[in-house]
Specification:
This protein is an alpha+beta fold and 274 residues long. It folds into three domains: 54 residues, no CATH class; 96 residues, no CATH class; 80 residues, no CATH class. The chain contains six helices and 20 strands. The strands form five sheets. A five-stranded antiparallel sheet has the order 2-1-3-4-5, covered by helices on one side. Strands 8-9-10-11-13 form a five-stranded mixed sheet. The longest helix is centred in the N-terminal third of the chain and has 18 residues. The two termini are 43 Å apart.
Length: 274
Amino acid sequence: MNLLIPYTISEDGSLVGVADAQSGHSYECPECHSPLSVRKGTRRKHFAHLPHHASCRFEGESALHSAAKHAIYFACTTWIAGEGEAPLIYRRCVACGVERWQELPDRVREVRLEERIDRSDGAVIADLALVDSDGAALAVVEILHTHEVDERKEVRLKGLPWIELRAKDVLDDALKWRPIQTKGLKRLPCLCSQGKAMPVVERGLTVHVDFCPKRARVWRGKPYANLIDDCAPCPYLYSYHVDVVCGYPVDKESALAELARRVPVRGSALVNRS
């Protein structure tokens, strides 16, 4: 297997994507550092090793793993240099279940390939390490091709946030990370931490939310809302997983007191632990 190489190193040591490469310039492989040529293939432009080059990890069984690892490195490095978009991680709020994309934090100032990280019970080699301005590892990115992060490596990474990505997913889009497993990441900042968790109530074929602060409907003096007709189109519906999380700004003290009395705030849904 000879996988297309995602980027190359120019004569001045800078990283060059295939879109910016020019025929006649000198480039080298980021893995084995042997010369590369720019080719306009039948399907797309790409880098390739010269004939009779030495063996390289972009060939053989580890090609997919190596290409994905370098694709992440190139995406992060160009973003840090201000020349590309920020990589995004697909996250899920543990409180309300909402899923969305989250940018890598600006604290990441460098990405390192195959970084040795010393731990109390021995060193661990990370596929990629996301590093801050002081050179400290903020998180580790592991690439899955044939072997997942095993128990031994997970134990050694304890206390250090890590993400595991599937190699094929990375090569489809290195800017959008869909983790297959994560450990130690801070809780996703979510609107549900700014609203009130309000339980839903099934009444026959309809689903209601009692004590609607907007008073969408009133029955015998008690405000409520229909989940489908009232809550779904309401701009103050922050999320709906098990409970409705409502962000309606209530101004009347009596209404707030009623909501506080009838609808207890659930710490697991409202406290931002990040």
